[in-house]
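To close the section, here is one more complete example, presented without commentary so you can practise reading it yourself. The ligand is adenosine-5'-diphosphate.
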Amino acid sequence: MLEIQNLSHTYPNGTVALDDVSLSIPRGMYGLLGPNGAGKSTLMRTVATLQEPTSGTIRFGDIDVLAEPQRLRRTLGYLPQDFGVYPRVSAYSMLDQVAILKGITSASERKQVVETLLNQTNLWGVRYKSLAGFSGGMRQRFGIAQALIGNPELIIVDEPTAGLDPEERNRFLNLLAAIGDNVVVILSTHIVADVADLCPRMAVLANGRVQLEGKPLELIAST
Ligand code: ADP
Ligand code: ADP
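Output:
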């Protein structure tokens, strides 16, 4: 369970991106829905310990996330909105390097982890191709592969379907759905259908505040 309490964030220029956000997020898929500028990325980066909030607390199981960021990072899989630069390195080699950084020191164990993930994400056939040449859908599937290394218990995926065609979108969402109910998976998106199809629970964020929280079908029926 991820417990976010009274979280606020004001950027140095005065923009209030989060305004007293409290959410209890259970295991399984959880949707964070909101328009551009709602504060989703700020919230996801804060939970991922990439930035500190102005105030509030975050707990994940027995981890006090803001006080013990290193402990959270060991059990976090994070796929940022823009996964950034794609180096001229093969998918295989990049996953192997991520596995080293996540502390998998045994080469045979890494081989097994990397090969399993390449298969799961349908990237086996392009494992020796350069990431720089990957399409948007391939990049997102690669992003999930790297996020899953080390069996994280918390996975954060920020706006993953932007720019994907319908087939790639479905492939990607099916990958997320296959992660299972023992992991907290937060899917941040501005696309209602992404959440409605996959998430037993969701929150709607707008102007940095939680507007609604509950089951997607009930929320859609009530608006
Ligand atoms: P999103 O699509 O999540 O709204 P943006 O496209 O607004 O993200 O922002 C992209 C990057 O620019 C992010 O790193 C964000 O922190 C930064 N950014 C967004 N708005 C501002 C701003 N008003 N001033 C400075 N940086 C900003
Ligand atoms: P979302 O992910 O829902 O699009 P963001 O968290 O990116 O929302 O942005 C929330 C608000 O904070 C927006 O008004 C955005 O312009 C602003 N913002 C984001 N990053 C920065 C930043 N680094 N500096 C100033 N304002 C920012």
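Once you have examined the tokens, check your reading against these statements. The pocket of adenosine-5'-diphosphate (ligand 1) is lined by residues 15, 36-37, 41, 81 (CB under 6 Å). The chain has a mean pLDDT of 93.
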